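ERR on first pass: missing label on line 2. Operator R.T. fixed the label and resubmitted. Corrected input:
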Amino acid sequence: MNTKSLSLHVPEPTTRPGDAPDFSYIDIPNAGSVRRPDIHCDPQAMRDLAFDLIRVMDDEGNAVGSWNIELSNEVLIKGLHDMLKTRIFDERMLMAQRQGKTSIYVQCRGEEAIACAQRAVLEKGDMCFPTYRQQGLLIAQDFPIEAMICQIYSNAKDKLGGRSLPFFYSEKEFGFFSISGNLGTQFMQAVGWAMASAIKGDTRIASGWIGDGATAESDFHAALVFASVYKPPVVMNVVNNQWAISSFQGIAGGSANNFACRGHGYNVPALRVDGNDYLAVYAASQWAVERARSNLGPTLIEWVTYRAAAHSTSDDPTKYRPENDAESWPLGDPIERLKTHLIAKGAWDDARHNAMIDQLKTEVKAAAKEAEKHGTLGKGPVPGAAEMFNHIYKELPPHLRKQRQEAGV
Amino acid sequence: MNTKQQDKDLASGKHIPRKNMLEAIRDALDIKLGDDENVVIFGEDAGYFGGVFRATEGLQKKYGKSRVFDTPISELGIIGAAVGMAAYGLRPVPEIQFADYILPAFDQIASEAARLRYRSAGEFTAPITIRAPTGGGIFGGQTHSQSPEALFTHVAGLKTVIPSNPYDAKGLLIAAIEDDDPVIFLEPKRLYNGPFDGHHNRPVTPWSAHETSKVPEGHYTVPLGKAAVTRTGQEVTILSYGTMVHVAKAAAEETGIDAEIIDLRTLLPLDDETIATSVRKTGRCVVVHEATKTSGFGGELIAIVQELCLNYLEAPIERVTGWDTPYPHAQEWDYFPGPDRVGAALKKVMEA
Ligand SMILES: Cc1ncc(C[n+]2csc(CCOP(=O)(O)OP(=O)(O)O)c2C)c(N)n1
Ligand SMILES: [Mg+2]
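pass 2 clean. output:
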């Protein structure tokens, strides 16, 4: 008979407001220390990679080890450009929200490398199933940011007619599936899209995205089961930015075990990667994309990163984590790190860097000004009330036609 | 509106503190955590942080992490866990962050919590109160604005409660937690910090200016299944609940029509008696809710009114609801059935 009384285990983060930041819970191996298996590797034979951390750039900015695929300066400068543009865009939209031009905004500050570098590896025709924090997937394709801003402002040129929340873009031509507010749903759908591509003997692949917190949803587990059964061509990205609003990743089970190793329960090969290392993100994405294109099936990748900003404009992280947490994040800032690497390579300097920032600020500001001509949330030319009756069905059924009349629109 | 408890407190000369709806809800949770050690509270961000709307703020600190805690982001996990805890003998009060996100838990609610008593002939029960912010008015778009109450009133075994003011919120929540059956407790999020009559362009009024913000200290209940007449009138009965009670009141005042406004408070079990008494008196009825129209709870109300009051009706019953569309972002105020639309329906039933 059990005579010892039981107690409930509720995980706690290492630090709370008022504490000094402490990231000792993350082991950071030296850059270049993790092996790079062949893409044909049996998942069983690469289990160690789910527990390691693939890193390419060392502290001095040198690219080292077998995951260094020697990207050209041109590719890297484009990567730096994309990340900077994403951050400057986020900063501008944050300000616009504060000025009442939209209702809410979500930045991806500190996580720019992940979406930008993976997108650089994907091809036209591939389909991403993003969360709300992968704006880099559009920006890295030089998608016209004015159109993004019009959507954020729910203005007359918002192609979604003001119906959707800001930043819930849908850009099929750019391989960007319509964003849903319901966490996790898209992760399973990415697997379904990839199954369709396999069914049709196509060559295109899917890329699914989910946050550390949302991996708790059943959709994540269903996605892994289907991926393991049908082996469709899909890259399954878990962005572990350590936080899900106020809940640290341990509440999603991240302190019991990491997110990458969940793949092994399903015999899906898994990588765990420094998500703030553009070179590592590029190389690991390329490995997974090549596997998918070679009909070898899915890869689960945990990107280890840090949500450097608030969850959204409605959130105040100083209520649940140390104020200077982000600055102490041991994997640094993805933009600064790539800049250091390019400078170490002799391919970049501060003057060019600052000129790029100035040019991007001008570009983003101009796009925002242009977008504003078409209205901001509830002000100026905005989509009409009739828009709310569009796209519910292919054709408006009689009861809704009546309701639209009743609404007088 | 003075209530019995308020009357008693006033008579005894006791000062009644003012509370907004969030504070009233937090007070109810605090009282139940304090007087029943089987009450546990959990949900996404509901522990340390106290919930994204801060309804559980401070409760983990006061009662400890075994009583108030954060959960993984899995709504089916949250409700499934609640069913298991209830089977053990606890009285869980899980929070779903937005009513829109309750759908992943629907199976655990509709097939499990709702039917546990029936399936086991009362051997196992599910005295669970599921709290979730409901309704629009905060530019929350398609997934932070919906009013899913009709999904729950359609399920045998569930009770569904929607308060419209701080006094009721506290009393109903305590009654829900003490109830031995599962209760869906939907909190109109637009009312958390102040009453809202649908005039979105006017400055927000705080609850402190509203009579119902007098929330007595300590334990009291507002019984489930009892509606409240929040305005007496002779010409027409308005049946409503949640945010729309305030909209209905504005519409009555603005049209000058002497409407009797019934705040249903509990949709299931429904207080037919109060409804029938009023409609038999006024002979006219307008049903108002923010949720979509087709298969909405308003259809049920109209059926009940015609069952109980057909011979008394002098005009067809009118229904004012959200349109049968997803909840749009930019067109929020075109969607929201504000006082103008309610007023037009009032005029229409009066002219019939
Ligand atoms: C089904 C569902 N439940 C809850 C929410 C509310 N919610 C929105 S974002 C969020 C946290 C998500 O965290 P994570 O998956 O780690 O992504 P991150 O925000 O960190 O990018 C929550 C709980 C939701 N949108 N959908
Ligand atoms: Mg996260």
